[in-house]
Amino acid sequence: MRTFARNWIGLPDVPGARRWVWVAVIDAVGTGMRIPVTVIYLTVVVQLPATLVGVGLGVAALAGTVCAPAAGALIDRFGPKPVVIACFLAAATGYFGYLAIVDWVSFLVVAVIAEIAEHSARPAKQALVASMVTAEQRVPMMAFQRSVRNIGFGLGGLTSAALLTLNTDAGYYAVLAGDAVSFLVAAALVTGIHVARKPAPPAKDTGAPAGFREVLADRRYVALAVLNTLVMTHVTALNVGVPLWVSQHTSAPPGLVGVLFAMNTALVVLLQVRLTKGVSRAGQTPPVYVRAAAAFALAAAGYWAAALTGNTLALVVVLLVVAVLAHTAAELYGAVGEWTVSVNLAPEHLRGRYLSLFSISFSAHQAIGPVLVILLITQAPDLAWFVLAAVLGAGCLASAWLARGAQEPAEPKEANSTA
């Protein structure tokens, strides 16, 4: 497995990488277990009204978004490792709390705790990876992390499916408890990662307001973060748009969606690291963004064509497979662009604040993206995929233009990490 990981998937040969890989896999297994069953648990087992569940999850996500900048300040003050551990422990507390929900108020409390922990963990984990490796190794390491997380998501989904075959409340409790335990195990593993390099002292005032003023004054970075909300269209288009499109606008059987998603996951695992070759600096990302836009335009054409072929099942399947292949390429290239500009353009002494700002783009897209995709596919199917391609294309091409010639902040002397 180690040889396969290094030679094919592309595990960077750096100290501490294996331990961090286990952290990523265990974290993803727990999340993969929980995501498919959370809403079902809340509505069927706890018996909360679906509308209140939606409101509660929305409020919790908003709380997580609002608190993410505070996590950035903590990362810059104490370093990413203790913040990652604290976030994992808080997430474990939140999801253990799901087992004790009795009404909407108790649900809201634990959901807010869990969402704040998860939103804050994203920039902290990125900053920790950045501090573990050299500048040239960052993008391959993040790509490998994404590959193994996809493996973990798949294993988690299979585990939850097996537990729910019990057809009792105990199956739901086991899934949620398993997710909470995964955060505890991940936190324990992170304690064994030694980061030799300490956070660099700020060049300016260390106060949080001054630090964020400096971040917001970086217009290029702020613009790239805003544009990433558009680039992330590939995520919602796959997770929400493809199942809806296949079921409502093609003659393909619903079971094909599972096959398409499995193909997407396998390709991400096998190709994500390989597509990072030659990209280690922000100035190298413009071609990557252009490829993402072109690939998604091809995918959009494939989805649209699949709806025009009527009951010719073989042709529908071929077109959908080609579309998902192109969609996956857009996803892979888009991710490379995102990692490279978000981490490499962030000066080390403010990296936590910079990454927490960039992470808001994910939260914003999670709020806007599903609504846009569902409205387009249900209300304007003839234009849906072309509008989505235009949105993503605009985000990618504008990002490519901004990244061209971007000057990265000077790196302090590198120090290796061991585990």
UniProtKB/TrEMBL annotation:
Name the domain of life this protein comes from: Bacteria
Protein location: Cell membrane
Signal peptide interval: none
MF-aspect GO terms: transmembrane transporter activity
Residue ranges annotated as transmembrane are 20-44, 51-75, 172-196, 221-246, 252-276, 288-306, 312-333, 354-377, 383-403
Q: Which chain positions lie within coiled-coil regions?
A: none
- A Pfam family reported for this protein in Swiss-Prot or TrEMBL: MFS_1
Protein name according to UniProt: MFS transporter
